[in-house]
């Protein structure tokens, strides 16, 4: 194979390939750097633990390797990674809460979350009770309401929990427990679901826990 003398300059084609390589490499590095900065920003906004921060970075790295990040908003993919990481540690952030804090459309978050979960096979389930602490802070409910909501969730049958949005179920329990201090619209906003979904879950909670329904009636 004929070798080019060391003094011979690379051809125009080779220069183009080398230039393209550096552009892609630098672009990828910049994307990762932007993602890490955004993770730090979210960490401060959401008071994320170090474990969740580290796991979020790992998930984003996996997404970059699988090219899930290509052509997609870095912020949306990072948010999806945060949600998955928080669920893995059973300290889930409700989609509505993150959407509000980051001023991101819930639909964009759901799309990114679905793509990351499917591409990386990251499916983690959290029970409704795990969402209570993340919902109570923005809703401003007191400890007694939280205790009642926990009791309501404990009384729910698996049939009324399985396959349903756990944050919506937790929010519905809080609504019933709050006895009119918060609205279904408030619950829907922080949970990241529709008011109709909350209304249905509230009806189920009242059916399973009639003592609170009678008290409010």
UniProtKB/TrEMBL annotation:
GO terms for molecular function: TBP-class protein binding; translation initiation factor activity. It comes from the Archaea. Keywords: Initiation factor, Protein biosynthesis, Repeat, Transcription, Transcription regulation. InterPro entries: Cyclin-like_sf, TFIIB, TFIIB_CS, TFIIB_cyclin. The keyword Protein biosynthesis applies. GO terms for cellular component: transcription preinitiation complex. The keyword Transcription applies. Residues 29-118, 128-206 form the Transcription factor TFIIB cyclin-like domain. SUPFAM superfamilies: Cyclin-like (SSF47954). GO terms for biological process: transcription preinitiation complex assembly. Belongs to the TFIIB family. This is Transcription initiation factor IIB. It comes from Haloarcula amylolytica JCM 13557. The lineage of its organism: Archaea, Methanobacteriati, Methanobacteriota, Stenosarchaea group, Halobacteria.
